[in-house]
Amino acid sequence: MSDGQKTRLTVDIYGYQYTIVGTESEYHIRRVTEMVDDKMREIGNRNATLDTQKIAVLTAVNMVNDYLKMEEELQEMKMELSRLKNRTVVNG
What we know:
By secondary structure, the protein is α+β, with helices and mostly antiparallel strands. The chain is built from two helices and two strands.
């Protein structure tokens, strides 16, 4: 997507309509919003007494937790790759 071009997309998340505007592709925006919707439905189905706001907050907490775990895993992989590269240079 070129500079200044915005994607505008109306999506459904947990029964509510939202217009999302961003620089990402329509595919990316749909993928993100579908993941949020899926997680909200998963949490809502397990906790029928929670209102939408609490489901949304728990969804955010769960998704940020997943993100941080993946970020930590990525850093570990980068460190391991760096160690392997250094070992190859030394033994090369």
